[in-house]
Design a protein that fits this description.
Rossmann fold, six-stranded mixed β-sheet
Length: 231
């Protein structure tokens, strides 16, 4: 079996500094790290792991609190707008909370992903009507103008096939009807969004190729990369 060498693994982590607005908005004494990526890419695991290493306050995706989510997976066309409005409102509240913290924070999925990936996918796949989409975007654009960007965006790049395997393994009831086609569409939108991301420095970690939870070499490489932005 072919094994990836340590040197080859390290080159998989990509660092890009496309910072524009964020250059002038660094928050002294604290950092805001955002973790983005498709479902099943390992966001929550990375957030838990980083918090176990450093004194950082975690903020997680409010999936369990969304009263529309189970209905949404059952009937996306009917529940797309209320579900996305809930996430947008909840994420805005989280952003206000994390921005008021005195110590560094790390967030599992951002408000930008809600709009640029999930709502966009619903509209393109005709699960959200144009009128609803325009109303949603109006609200999103208004909220976005009030947000401070992260000091670091971490994107967990994970293939659609790996995402489907992980969804099957974790066996969440509300995710049972998720199709490979839906996951592939999200993956393409994520790749397009991250290609054009310019709010802050960006680190891309291939989470289906690096095992930073149990592999000591991978763990060291990921930690070394993240630590540069915690100083």
């Amino acid at each position: 079996m072919n094994r990836t060498s340590s040197a080859e693994k390290r080159t998989l982590i990509t660092e890009l500094n496309r910072s524009t607005r964020a250059d002038n908005e660094q928050r002294a004494g604290r950092k805001y790290i955002a973790v983005s990526g498709n479902m099943g890419s390992g966001k929550s695991s990375l957030v838990d792991w980083v918090c176990s290493r450093y004194s950082i306050e975690p903020f997680f995706e409010p999936n369990d609190e969304n009263p529309y989510l189970a209905d949404f997976y059952r009937d996306m066309r009917r529940f797309s707008l209320p579900s996305q409005i809930y996430f947008l409102s909840a994420k805005f509240r989280i952003h206000l909370q994390l921005d008021s913290q005195s110590r560094s924070v790390i967030q599992d999925r951002t408000i930008w992903e809600d709009a640029e990936i999930f709502a966009e996918n619903l509209f393109r796949s005709r699960k959200m009507a144009r009128r609803d989409y325009d109303t949603y975007r109006l609200l999103y654009e208004t909220i976005r103008s009030q947000l401070k960007p992260p000091d670091l965006m971490i994107y967990l790049r994970c293939s659609a096939s790996t995402v489907m395997k992980r969804i099957a393994i974790r066996n969440r009831k509300m995710e049972k009807n998720i199709s490979p086609h839906y996951v592939r569409r999200l993956h393409k939108l994520y790749e397009s969004w991250i290609e054009n991301y310019q709010l802050s420095p960006l680190v891309i970690i291939p989470s289906d190729k690096l095992d930073y939870i149990t592999d000591l070499v991978d763990r060291h490489d990921v930690l070394t990369t993240i630590e540069k932005y915690l100083r």
